[in-house]
Amino acid sequence: MGSKKSLSSQASFRMILLTLMVFQNSSVVLVGRHTRSSVSKSDMYVVNHLILVCEFLKLVLSAILEHIVTDGQLMKSVKENIIDNPLDFLRTLVPSLLYLVQNSLLYIALSNLSAPLFQVTYQTKVLTTALISVIMLNRRYSLKQWICLFFLGIGVAIVLLGEGSAKISSEENADPKSVVEKVEAEVVEPDEPAQSLFAGLFAVFIACISSALAGVYFEKVLKKSTKNETGKERPPVSLWMRNIQLAFFSVIIAFVQFLMLKGADLEKPFLYGFTAEVWILVILQAGGGLLVAAVIKYADNVLKGLATGVSVVVSTACAVIFFGTTLGVQFVCGASIILSSVYLFTNDIPSCLTRKRKGGEKENEMKPLTLPR
Fold first, then answer.
1. DSSP 8-state code for residue 44
2. Closest CA to 132 of 235, 210, 63, 64
3. Using an 8 Å Cβ cutoff, are 314 and 22 in contact?
4. What mean pLDDT is predicted for residues 283-310?
5. Which positions ≥6 away from 62 have C-beta within 8 Å?
6. HSE-CB for 120 with a 13 A CA cutoff
7. Per residue in 161-200, pLDDT tens?
């Protein structure tokens, strides 16, 4: 009886995590897209200000959670993991820098791409992570995983070709009068944010590489066991302490970037353009980092893969309803191939689709892969 209650409570907790992750993933894309496309350039917030506030909030929340987990021994944990072990602490500088680059580029992508296109193309981080893992970690993948990566690339190509052909078709079939009105509107309102498909896709590509490098580096260097002054192995650093270290360097790097701002961004005061929607985005971003950490600790890749797929569907549906985004047949086909490839790459093939060998061993059995945030 007790075991059934325990299993039921675990299932309920996982369902709560799934719901929260779907909500967070979908909301960040939709709110981020709205805040970057609904205002003029002069009224738009500075991305550096947003990242600085988000990382500082992550630092505060991680410190609070570490204080709770250690039963009020936060300062002791800081002394053991930072002051007494500075080399291990400094190693977090590399992923912090890479994650900061990734976050900055994602807002550039959201400024230039629709929410569905961004969500789908950003799944190529699975491909970049796999390739970099082969190079840096000498990791080997099964034939099934390589097939998934191949079809992931095919799916991205279908989506991008469909997007490009749709753009060309709309320009060719456009009414000359509407084209003249559009040009006149751009002359009258030059302050409106311009969108570039190439800039958005390039930002997504570099962000995927940064995410992969950060995740693989974190796995290779930071997850290794550390030793104390006497040469004995120390217990692994807690999840929240790692988040404190990452957020600390992210705040420092973002602050240095803040001091180096130029042009129109320099003229805007700190927190300029921070509307209620932007503050919601800050909370979603800061809470999202902690939520991913909780999913990694208390759930598995099945849940993470399912949340990714559901969030893409939810954000796409919301973009169609609220933003009037139109989806073509090529986009739907390509997105389906991408999401299927991502799920099957990171998780086992469902048992109903596999044959069992003698002894109960399944064919194409694979070990799930932990992806970067």
1. P
2. 210
3. yes
4. 70
5. 240, 241, 243, 244, 247, 290
6. 29
7. 776 665 555 545 545 554 444 434 444 444 555 678 888 8
